[in-house]
What does this fold into?
Amino acid sequence: MDRSESTPNLTPTSFLVLGMVGHLGEATSYQMKQLVGATIGGFWPVPHSQLYAEPARLAGIGLLDEQREAAGRKKRTYRLTEPGRDALAGWLASPDEAGGELRDESLLKLFFGAQAGPGTVATFARRAATSHRDRLAGYEHLVAHPPVGSDLHQLSILALVCRYEAEAIAFWDAVAVDPDLA
Amino acid sequence: MDRSESTPNLTPTSFLVLGMVGHLGEATSYQMKQLVGATIGGFWPVPHSQLYAEPARLAGIGLLDEQREAAGRKKRTYRLTEPGRDALAGWLASPDEAGGELRDESLLKLFFGAQAGPGTVATFARRAATSHRDRLAGYEHLVAHPPVGSDLHQLSILALVCRYEAEAIAFWDAVAVDPDLA
DNA sequence: GGGTACATGTAATCAGTTACATGATTTA
DNA sequence: TAAATCATGTAACTGATTACATGTACCC
It folds into this structure.
């Protein structure tokens, strides 16, 4: 009964951090924050406080190497250790049990739409459509002007997200037109 | 500066509970669990423990009326109070700031796909496609055999979810075929 | 009458959020 | 040199998850 195997308590956020560091080679918390904001932040948000706390924790477990600047700012730069690289590789190769979650509060509202008036439904449907349009525009801009250092896998994800946004727009437009039947 | 107005500390889960109770007229925690499992549970999971804890809390705040069975099982049945109905209506009419999150661990993995081998990417792309296919089948079954008491709004959401699943399947199939370029 | 699935809760822990705080650069 | 913004963290709280625990009904 070996109990020291596998991941001790690594969350998706942990792997997000490991992946970011691996992708960048070396990174400060701020750089990760930037990268997240520029890419997956739109559909997988991570508050910056976690991007400071989590790398520190991972360094404590030995999955990251923490290099502290001596000079004034004393910022911490992280790099993958071998165990860290292994953990990342293991996660990448592991199957995901839980299918993706589609947490959209508007969807929840629509689910209870019968308890609101049709006018209310139409109103937030219009708002939702607008909001998705904005997001789609943002993603399309990203695709058109990819940040330096992004690779094809990363861009391909944006393709899926764009398709989803397009569906969402069509959907909410339809709901706005016919709030009762959708 | 009136500070007693509006929602004190109501989370999406709170409104989910309020909505469920409103939809059912009256409900026990278990009934909510059933309903969640049969409908939104696939993309907006809620652990059953919350469906016991949260109604109790809401009853404490006065948004739900809790009726305790005298007999053996002593189960608690909830019903909306007027304030509860107001809170629900207010939420339904309020705009959502945060756009929906698309938390899918597979997406995260693909994002870091360049750090895994193409073989690895292809493997989990195939798995992801399969998983989405299963989910799509499940939703389509739901649409074909709607549970009693479901209304059109609720079914319409399933339509969107189905479309999203279809996109996801197409996407992951493409990735599986061409893991490098996607 | 013994097992299995249904039903109903509680307790402990923790990841993640929110809020607080402040130093370093740039800009006007 | 004041304001604004960029950059870097820490602290407190809490909603949610995980795990525990037990009763009841049905089925074989």
